[in-house]
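Suppose you are handed a protein chain with no further information: no name, no annotation, nothing but its sequence. What can you learn? This example shows the usual starting point.
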Amino acid sequence: MLSSLMIRLLKPLFLLMLVSLPQLGQANTLLIFGDSLSAGYGLKEHEGWAHLLKQRIAQDYPTYQVVNASISGETTTGGLARLEKTLDKFKPTIVLLELGANDGLRGLPIPQMQRNLQTMIQQIKKTGSKVVLMEMRIPPNYGKRYTELFQKSYSQLAVQEEIKLMPFFLKDIAGQQQYLQQDNLHPNAKAQPILLNTIWQFIDPLLNKPST
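A reasonable first move is to predict its three-dimensional structure. Written in structure tokens, the prediction is:
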């Protein structure tokens, strides 16, 4: 048995070890911060790709939780206004930033959208979280110059801020009626597993592998 003197000597070391170890059950958080494309507009909650992602991560990465803070109709201005409180509340490890489509569809100035996105990216980085910027595109009927400048703004931001850029995740369903709702903009339920697969291929390498 340890002597009382030995116990007194070892106690500070033991307490230091406890403080240094990660808390058991402490979860990493993947935050989805977007608009209707992530909020599941026109779908039942369990049908959207964000919910499917939550199920996939729960199965493959049990140390992660998924929080979907997306709002239908959100612009980059609206997202910027609520981002700080969202980060404070959930303290995410990784943020999927999916905004800008509504700015483009409303024909808002692209420099304004870029500034908003850049400010959000910088706010996220200050918290120590990884940022994944999800590239958005708009229909070609907005004119070649506007649509090209809109798309390029995402790659420019990714380079400037040195963050990951996820290529347009709707690329496999865009323009295909069988995967779109009646508005020809929002993906339907049949499209969601396709979107999940596209997103998963990109973010899977970013997640910490569970210990075996």
